[in-house]
Write a structure and sequence with these properties.
This protein is of the alpha+beta class. The longest helix has 21 residues, at 167-187. It binds one RNA strand through residues 9, 11-19, 34, 36-37, 89-92, 108-109, 138, 140, 142-144, 146, 151, 157, 159, 200-202, 218, 407, 410, 412, 440, 442, 444, 476, 478-479, 481, 510-518, 520, 529, 531-533.
RNA sequence: CGGGGUGUAGCGCAGUUUGGUUUAGCGCGCUUGCUUCGGGAGCAAGAGGUCGGCGGUUCAAAUCCGCCCACCCCGACCA
């Protein structure tokens, strides 16, 4: 592509709206433009990157025997009622009606459609396993789109669905996708961490997320520096802490006046005591049952873990009224001592607290020197708190690290949930009717592009991996008024292009500085600089953007060198 | 949906506190000409604005008041 004939638009300054680095660079390099919150136009340069990622995805999916198809975006209400998800609030469904008041949804995901299709087409175990996928725009009416293309209302997704005769086939299918995903992200130049996840709205038994580590990520994950343990912050576990027996002797309980001191933070300042000494008492309503959760003052409760422990459907914090009813004291002054008719569940960390401080269940009062076993007895001790940086790994007792990341892929074993509701049945070898076991596997294509930038950039430049770069080589023609130089640039451009190399020729009548800055920004990994000075020496310069390596080569050797470097960086 | 912030030319901003030399400026970008030409050039001449919208106060509103809208950040929520 010749720059003068292209629709490449770069910006010197990032629009104010952009905060995340990938967002800024995408706008500045002219990959995309915003239409409205979470809605973007992909410009030619951005679309080239998207297509590259899609190609990699296709290759790796096809390698595992998956087949591409394309399903409708507009989906009728009825099929979603069949699956029981029409009123699902987690999916952010964008619903609409046509002229006849018939209701539709713009597809946020396609389990319903694919399962319906397969249920109509597949009759025999001989046709299974089957893995079908598509790459398509998805719609989610996000409450808060953010970070540019990391959380958008409309985005491109690769979604695959597999159908199996039994568990072992389903496991194999899941494993295949896990491998494909690792290959895809590696080829895209992304470092990802696989973490166990909560299946959430998708349902099913097992799911794992592929998280690209990045500071502007929305997900927080925990992983062990020593072994392979990794999990979502909310569900990460921690190993037993060294329960070094405190030498502190138990003292007798004392009531403290703490006027209007309701939070740990306030209490810390007021009493000048460490939060580790404090026992936070949180009252929850779990499926109509009232429970009290005890957490050490410096930790946070994990509702995910608590819910899992209680095996309850609904878990919500009690309101002020209920707290008064249950504890006898107002919000902010709850404590385990003297609590009755309430199940008390204590975090493992709380067992360590000697002479703790906690609410007195009376207005403006806390109590000091509270000890488990003597002053109160929890009904259960469990790991219900959120992991902190430096906690012990539950597997190998190494140190756990807490990092932000972007969820770029998610794989699920769905079991029979959808085949049950949408009737995806087949006949087995014995002629018996059976429900297919399903899996579904998603990759956020546009989000992956953003994640690649998050992991491959510096302050003023994208550093594309060759595999996804919009062009393979960026030819900078310095001085368009030098006939000889233009001729050399044209020839090289034509030859390279003719040989299938994706080249961008900056043939604008701009000064060198402008061209170099734009080349940095756009971030094509190879740069070929053609200047009158070098041409008079019958040479051209080749530079690798990422590592800064430079080569001065004879004009007639440039083609081969470029191809060699593309290959090396491929 | 709760909390905070921002809306002035394509992009970045000043002006708003204290209404009136502001016919609303500046930098970049854009157009034309000349010079320049290896890291965001110089000079000259131009084009480009419902000051987010509606309503109000006032002799007078970018500026004060009210309502609304949009966008961003934190939270809640989230393949």
């Amino acid at each position: 592509m010749r720059w003068t004939q292209s629709f490449i638009r770069t910006l010197r300054d990032a629009p104010r709206e952009a905060e995340a680095i990938s967002h800024k660079l995408m706008l500045r390099a002219g990959l995309a433009r915003r239409l409205s919150a979470g809605l973007y136009t992909y410009l030619p340069l951005g679309l080239r990157v998207i297509r590259k990622v899609e190609d990699i995805v296709r290759q790796e999916m096809n390698k595992k025997g998956a087949q591409e198809l394309l399903m409708p975006i507009l989906q009728p209400k009825e099929i979603w009622e069949q699956s029981g998800r029409w009123d699902d609030k987690e999916l952010g469904m964008l619903k609409l009606k046509n002229r006849e008041e018939r209701e539709f949804v713009l597809g946020p995901t396609h389990e319903e459609i694919i399962t319906d299709l397969v249920s109509r087409e597949v009759r025999s175990y001989k046709e299974l396993p089957l893995n079908l996928y598509q790459i398509q725009t998805k719609f989610r009416d996000e409450m808060r789109p953010r970070f540019g293309m990391i959380r958008a209302r409309e985005f491109i997704m690769k979604d695959a669905y597999s159908f199996h005769v039994d568990e072992s086939s389903a496991r194999k299918g899941y494993q295949d996708m896990s491998e494909a995903y690792s290959n895809i992200f590696r080829r895209c130049g992304l470092k990802t961490q696989v973490v166990e996840a909560d299946p959430g709205a998708m349902g099913g038994s097992k799911s794992e997320e592929f998280i690209a580590l990045a500071d502007t990520g929305e997900d927080i994950i925990v992983f062990c520096a020593q072994c392979s343990y990794a999990a979502n912050l909310e569900s990460a576990q921690r190993g037993a802490e060294a329960l070094g027996k405190s030498t502190e002797k138990m003292k007798s309980v004392k009531e403290l006046k703490t006027p209007n001191i309701k939070t740990i933070e306030q209490l810390k300042d007021f009493l000048r005591e460490k939060p580790e000494k404090m026992i936070k008492t949180l009252i929850y309503l779990a499926d109509e049952k009232i429970i009290a959760a005890l957490i050490s003052g410096h930790r946070e409760l994990s509702e995910v873990k608590l819910r899992k422990n209680l095996k309850c459907e609904n878990l919500e914090m009690a309101d002020e009224k209920l707290i008064e009813e249950v504890t006898g004291g107002p919000l902010g002054f709850s404590g385990p001592v003297g609590l009755k008719k309430v199940k008390i569940i204590a975090d493992v960390g709380v067992t360590k607290i000697v002479n703790g401080i906690t609410g007195a269940n009376k207005r403006d009062k806390h109590i000091r020197n509270v000890n488990m076993g003597r002053d109160y007895n929890p009904d259960e001790v469990a790991d219900i708190s959120i992991v902190r940086e430096g906690d012990r790994c539950p597997k190998c007792s190494g140190k756990l690290a807490v990092r932000r990341g972007i969820e770029v892929g998610h794989i699920f074993n769905l079991g029979r949930r959808y085949s049950q509701r949408l009737g995806a049945k087949f006949l087995n070898e014995k002629g018996q009717e059976r429900l297919a076991i399903m899996g579904c596997y998603g990759i956020g294509i546009t989000r992956t592009v953003a994640a690649i930038i998050e992991q491959n950039h510096d302050e003023n430049a994208i550093l594309w991996p060759m595999s996804v770069s919009p062009y393979q080589v960026h030819i900078i023609l310095l001085n368009v008024n030098s006939r000889e130089t233009v001729k050399v640039a044209d020839n090289l451009y034509n030859q390279l292009t003719g040989e299938g190399v994706e080249a961008l020729l900056d043939d604008r009548d701009e000064r060198a500085g402008v061209k170099f800055k734009d080349a940095d920004l756009i971030g094509v990994p190879l740069r070929l600089t053609i200047s009158p000075k070098r041409v008079s020496e019958k040479k051209v310069e080749i530079k690798c953007h990422r590592d800064g390596k430079e080569f001065l080569v004879a004009i007639e050797q440039a083609r081969e060198k470029v191809k060699e470097l593309i290959h090396e960086n491929g």
